[in-house]
């Protein structure tokens, strides 16, 4: 009896440990979540990063990692040019996204918060690029 129990536990441990990373289809390829996040981070700009995020979304907790990649890409457009007050305003808007779904259960709400955060970063990026374009004229 004891040996059957040990074998059952061993089988469960081995089945969990041997599970490969979950794949998803994005850009017409089978990719892991890390590969998709890397592809988003490799985009040349915020708009293309956001577009890829929208195309590859999971509507689940995995979107948190993808959304963070979008935020990082978009922040490169505007973060260096923000003063302290503007950075605080940006952080407040990000915090609003986090608070909006905090009492909801289900992984889709994590996705909604990730999209909200990415959209805030996208808006800031758009404003910064528009302002830079106006200055360049």
How is this structure best described in words?
There is one protein chain. The protein is built from 6 helices and 2 strands, in the order αββααααα. The protein has helices at 2-17, 33-41, 46-56, 63-78, 84-100, 107-136; strands spanning 23-26, 29-32. The longest helix is centred in the C-terminal third of the chain and has 30 residues, at 107-136. A two-stranded antiparallel ribbon has the order 1-2. By secondary structure, the chain is mostly helical. The radius of gyration is 20 Å and the shape is flat. Strand 1 (23-26) and strand 2 (29-32) form a beta hairpin. It has one domain.
Provide the number of structural domains.
Answer: 1
Record field, number of beta strands? 2
Mean pLDDT: 85
**Could you tell me the radius of gyration in angstroms?**
20 Å
* Percentage of residues in DSSP E strands: 5-15%
Classification by helices and strands:
mainly alpha
Considering DSSP H and I runs of 4 or more, what fraction of the residues is helical? over 70%
- Total DSSP helices: 6
Biggest β-sheet strands, sense, barrel: 2 strands, antiparallel
Q: Low-confidence parts lasting 5 or more residues at pLDDT below 50? A: 5-20
Shape category: flat
How far the N terminus sits from the C terminus, by CA atoms, comes to: 81 Å
Give helix and strand order, one letter per element, not per position. Answer: HEEHHHHH
The strands making up the biggest β-sheet line up spatially as 1-2
